[in-house]
Write a structure and sequence with these properties.
Radius of gyration of chain A: 25 Å
Strand order of the largest sheet of chain A: 1-2-4-3
Number of helices of chain A: 10
Distance between the termini of chain A: 24 Å
Order of helices and strands of chain B: HHHHHH
Shape of chain A: elongated
CATH class of chain B: Mainly Alpha
Number of domains of chain B: 1
CATH architecture of chain B: Up-down Bundle
Oligomer: heterodimer
Number of strands of chain B: 0
CATH architecture of the largest domain in chain A: 2-Layer Sandwich
Strand content of chain A: under 5%
Largest sheet of chain B: none
Helix content of chain A: 55-70%
Mean pLDDT of chain B: 80
Number of strands of chain A: 4
């Protein structure tokens, strides 16, 4: 295990998180101030007694809201994600299965040299798992009840080591922020869309009235261009933000598999766990789309996550499981080979 | 000229402070990793008497196996130093392995909730020991490499850094990896 590599990973993820937050705020500022510009241009030619949009209060409010959402995601993002899945925390393990889960998590925390994360159980029969939290000290690992029934001890260890790797690399910070932001962008886009459908008539009505009065045609062209661009961003934003979340997630999965294998020194167990998880292809109902990229395998049961090539590269939140299994088995084979060489020389 | 000299001295001093602190941080991490192993070993020592008293009734005629576990445990408790502890713990692991293999022959033990629970606890504790050992060895190797490589080795003496002992795998049974040997046995060397 190379430590400089680990620190580089952590730094890269810290940087990515900062960029993400900056990009998110800039996006909201654009949505806000862009709207202000459009309204200002559209109302510029209005009669002296009419409404002139001078103070960019939409922009100011939008930017403040974005800042608020960022702070909220930072502070409560992990709780929200857990809450949304209906997970409950295991404090006193009630069954032998839960006790085993607690033990396995403690083992992997020791292997990774991290504090023990909080452990949550999602009441869902489909096997899946995810980790969240802004840093190792506040991290949580959640698994579904189905996972405990499906996997044996070693495979469970493999899955937990994968999640522990996400925590250690600070993937969870980036992913949790992304989950909160994807969700709020979708919400904002929906809300604004509803307002536009209701209020758009009034704006165009005002525009035509003023243009009729000045005798020109089509109102203010610059204002219209800005308005069109603005609307376009609103339509595209939810898709782009989800694609971004998927792209980030896809890249991190291979690395977490590899780091997890390094922690357990048992890549074969994680490979067989992944095979079992993919065999149970039913969607994990408790885990909604917004948190899909946090999970160890795609919870939506989307066929795209098993497609190789362009479609899978753009629209899947996870790399194909077959690919992941092949890589892990490759590692396991290397281990056996090395061990074999050792016993022969010994 | 004097300014350049001053600058060189300041940079040098800053580097020494940085290297020294780096070594001390690593040294503390090595100590901490060792403590982690210690905690788990202690837990294992505490669990064993419970296990023995639970299975004693059903396995009365396996007395020698039980006694081997107890004596290995007592030896492990009193062991000091990395080498001796590693050796004693290795023997304890083997003795426990034999005991668990024997419990397979007793259906009432295999289905006994208490035994199953103790078995899970001991399995987990053994895993924790081996992961803590892994962490200790990784940290100690990093520390050793740092204090011996140039240029950090120049401040090793200042930081009173000495190579940390690695936890070697002691007994052959633990080292051996089951491999399928398809080749013919080699003829003895003439």
């Amino acid at each position: 295990m190379s430590d400089t590599d680990l620190f580089a990973q952590q730094d890269a993820n810290r940087r990515r998180s900062v960029w993400l937050v900056a990009g998110f705020i800039i996006f909201f500022a654009w949505v806000g101030f862009g709207g202000d510009v459009a309204f200002a241009l559209l109302t510029r030619d209005a009669a002296p007694g009419g409404y002139h949009h001078v103070i960019p209060f939409i922009g100011i409010v939008a930017t403040l809201i974005a800042g608020g959402i960022c702070w909220y995601s930072w502070r409560f993002g992990a709780e929200r994600v857990l809450w949304a899945t209906g997970a409950w925390e295991i404090i006193e393990p009630a069954t032998p299965e839960q006790k085993q889960l607690v033990n396995v998590v403690e083992e992997m925390a020791i292997a990774a040299g991290l504090p023990k994360p909080r452990i949550w159980l999602v009441p869902d029969d489909d096997p899946n798992a995810f980790a969240t939290g802004r840093d190792p000290a506040t991290a949580s690992i959640a698994v579904t009840e189905g996972l405990l029934h499906t996997l044996n001890r070693e495979e469970l260890q493999g899955v937990v080591s994968h999640e522990m790797a996400h925590i250690r690399n600070f993937d969870t910070r980036l992913m949790t922020l992304l989950a909160a932001m994807v969700g709020s962008i979708a919400l904002m886009s929906d809300g604004l869309g509803r307002i536009m459908r209701g209020g758009g008539v009034r704006v165009s009505g005002g525009g035509s009235r003023s243009s009729g009065r000045s005798g020109g045609k089509g109102g203010n062209p610059l204002g219209l261009i800005v308005l069109v661009l603005w609307l376009l961003t609103l339509i595209v934003a939810p898709i782009v933000s989800r694609l971004l979340a998927m792209a980030v997630s896809r890249k991190r999965e291979y690395l977490a598999d590899a780091t997890g294998a390094q922690l357990t020194r048992n890549p074969g167990a994680l490979a067989s766990a992944l095979e079992k998880l993919s065999a149970a292809a039913e969607p994990t109902r408790k885990i909604t789309r917004g948190a899909a990229h946090l999970c160890i395998v795609d919870p939506t049961g989307s066929a795209l996550s098993n497609v190789e090539g362009f479609l899978g590269d753009v629209f899947a939140s996870h790399p194909p499981i077959a690919q992941r299994v092949i890589r892990l088995k490759g590692m396991a084979y290397q281990d056996v080979k090395r061990a074999g060489a050792q016993t022969q020389t010994a | 000229m004097g300014l350049i000299l001053l600058l060189v001295i300041v940079v040098l001093a800053l580097w020494i402070v940085g290297a020294y602190n780096g070594l001390i941080t690593l040294k503390n991490r090595v100590v901490n990793a060792w403590k982690q192993i210690d905690v788990q070993l202690k837990r294992r020592h505490d669990l064993i008497p419970n296990l023995v008293s639970t299975v004693k009734g059903s396995m009365d005629f396996e007395r020698s196996t039980l006694e081997a576990v107890i004596s290995a445990r007592n030896k492990a408790v009193s062991a000091t130093g990395v080498q001796a502890t590693a050796k004693a713990e290795g023997e304890l692991t083997q003795a426990l392995g034999r005991l668990f293999a024997l419990t397979e022959n007793y259906p009432d033990l295999k289905s006994n909730q208490n035994v199953l629970q103790l078995q899970e606890e001991l399995t987990s504790t053994e895993n924790k020991i081996s992961f803590a050992r892994q962490l200790y060895n990784d940290t100690a190797t990093e520390y050793n490499t740092k204090q011996m490589t140039f240029p950090t080795n120049l401040v090793s003496g200042l930081a009173k850094a000495s190579p940390a002992e690695l936890w070697e795998i002691q007994d052959a049974a633990e080292r051996a990896v089951p491999t399928v040997d398809l080749s013919m046995p080699k003829p003895p060397a003439a």
